[in-house]
Amino acid sequence: MDNIIQDPKEPISRRARRRRLTNSAATCFAYGALITALSFLMWIVLSVIQKGFAGLTLDTLLQMTPPPGSQGGLANAIFGSLYMTFGAMLFATPVGILAGVYLTQHTNQVLRTASVLRFLNDMLLSAPSIVLGLYVYEVYVVNVKHFSAFAGMMALALIALPIMTRTTEDMLRLVPFTLQEAAYGLGATRWEVFSKILLRISKTGLITGVLLAVARISGETAPLLFTALNNQFWSTKLGAPMANLPTVIFQFAMSPYADWQQLAWAGAALIMLWVLALNIIARSLSSSSGPSY
Amino acid sequence: MEHITLSIKNLDFHYGKLHVLKDISLNIPHKQVTAFIGYSGSGKSTLLRTFNRIYELSGNPRIAGEILLDGQDILSKKYPVDTLRQKVGMVFQRPTPFPMSIFENVAFGLRLHHAMEPSDLEERVMWALNQAALWDEVKDKLHNSGLGLSIGQQQRLCIARTIAMKPEVILLDEPTASLDPLGTRKIETLVEELCKDYTIVIVTHNMKQAQRISHHTAFMQNGHLVEHAPTDTFFNAPTHEETKQYLIYST
Fold first, then answer.
1. Are A178 and B85 within 8 A, CB to CB?
2. pLDDT tens across A53-100, in order?
3. B61: which chain A residues are within 8 Å (Cβ-Cβ)?
4. How many degrees, rounded to 5, is the angle at CA B99 between CA B160 and CA A100?
5. Are A243 and A150 in contact (CB under 8 A)?
6. What residues in A contact B96, CB-CB < 8 Å?
7. Of the candidates B54, B161, B162, which has its C-beta nearest A184's C-beta?
């Protein structure tokens, strides 16, 4: 037992050689995987930029979606996407935040309501978005007998809701419990602890959560296909079908017309820029302050 | 007869299946310092946490027995918990300043319960910081964040926050555990000063500290209150074998 550490002058043992070899192989493999993943990503980004920005002009932002063969833009679709996203977040943000608060504040009860709810929320979180769209179609669209912006908002809200709930729970868990205890110790009620302590500390995190949820629902197509459908014209009516970027991209890209295909690429580039911007803002927000206590 | 602030009678406490406090009875005298000592897990912190019912926040607690504050049972569902916590303030092991200014930290509890005129509020905050021996150190930066203070100052800020409510009782749960000797000294001096106006209950692992600042000392082991006596008697002539053992181990 006196000489376990190998003398550097001795030739290395077979075991040591095998360990080093395994290590090098694993490292190479990891790098290879990284390069594969990144090169596909770069390929996607570059082709969208190349094809999308070629056709991106001021008219793209200001004109309505055209019939085949004539000039036009994506104004009604851009508006529709922003409008429905906004409407969806208007519902999902407060409900999601309060649900997240419930999950953090009721963890130790005898009835395991919080764990059951958390499990259901996680299921909703990973549910395919087309299922949520189908649900809204069955429950709402079929009954009112027409597609509408409102139905689109409902579908998007159902996608954003579990994201908001989850982010809120994660953010609130970062707040040290002792801080809440101290506030309760001064006679604060649950609501006061939430509004004056928890919300104050985790507001940047919650804003980040909102931005990421917006990014997530901005590109959703499937649930909009059978809720908001599409609209060739400018519409601000909640009860009428509404144009939106993902569905327009879907319809135009599948068409045989070159000018429609060009607009589809432009729309794709716009969505990508939007999501990129949201992610950059969210990232800089969360790195600049984190939970600020 | 001695004036009693808190009177604990046959207190039993469970967290789920864990029997934490076993048939505890004792009196906490008015405007004096009572220290609880004992091994980790002996139940001394839990006992402290029953005095303002903060235990209700976690676990699956069950409690039986009585705790009388000025003759009223604070464990009764009819006793409003926010009133209780105004009367019985608590300072924790680690300083817990809120992420707001020094002024707002002290004003936090006051704003919850009282609609005070700004001038009254200011006066009360000043008074509380003075009582907590922090005023001179922070008077020029009242509107800076409380998080910018040293750990020792943060702990005195938490004491000021508690004092501002003008409580009857102040509970201190190992208040110097995270402080350096100088910070500890300042808190101890402060406690000696504060017990002229408040009833103080302190949990500590530091035997010397209990000896220095308390009038009464209670020793707990495995959820039982083993011995409770005036501090001098407690340390010089303990009557129970377990107490003697503990005193030997800890010095």
1. no
2. 888 889 899 999 999 888 899 999 999 999 999 999 999 999 999 999
3. none
4. 125
5. no
6. 176, 178-179, 181-182
7. B54
Domain A58-286: top CATH class: mainly alpha
**Residue A3 confidence (pLDDT):** 60
C-alpha B82/C-alpha A192 separation (Å) is 12
Beta bridge partners of B9: B66
Locate A166 and state its tokens: 């989850």
Judged by CB atoms closer than 8 Å, whether chains meet at B92 and A108 is answered as: no
Find the closest chain A residue to B148 by CA distance: A293
Strand order in the sheet with B18-29: B18-29, B4-15, B61-69, B72-73
From A89, A97, A88, A92, select the one nearest A205 (Cα to Cα). Answer: A97
One-letter amino acid of B102: I
Cα separation, B250 vs B233, in Å, equals 17
Question: Could you tell me which residues are beta bridge partners of residue B67?
Answer: B8
This model of the complex carries an ipTM of 0.92
Residue contact A187–B85, C-beta within 8 A:
yes
pTM of the model: 0.80
What is the rounded CA–CA span in Å between residue B40 and residue A3? 44
